[in-house]
């Protein structure tokens, strides 16, 4: 017979939800910061190009951004996360907390 302690399951779920919420919130804030930095950099390139100070090959620049996006998507593989989370209650709490934190962030 399986012995399940509701208190332990609740603590695992709550702890996973809290950690997931913090990580989701931080992830969204970091993504916003990176988007602002890239946007400012592209505006600076456009301004310097309009002043004749800089010549930008926009095709090569956008190709590099697309390669970076592909690498970032490959790095987002969550197999390491699956091995870290050992029980379903922690995983469910973490996932729920992550989504709430990411949405609120």
UniProtKB/TrEMBL annotation:
Cellular-component GO terms for this entry: membrane
**Is this entry keyworded Methyltransferase?**
no
Q: Pfam families per the record?
A: FUN14
InterPro entries (alphabetical): FUN14
At the top level of its lineage, which domain of life is listed? Archaea
Q: From the UniProt record, list the coiled-coil ranges.
A: none
The residue ranges crossing the membrane are 30-48, 80-102
List the subcellular locations. Answer: Membrane
Which keywords label this protein? Membrane, Transmembrane, Transmembrane helix
Main localization (coarse): membrane
Q: What is the similarity comment for this entry?
A: Belongs to the FUN14 family.
- What name appears for this protein in its UniProt entry? FUN14 domain-containing protein
Q: Which organism is it from?
A: Natrinema salsiterrestre
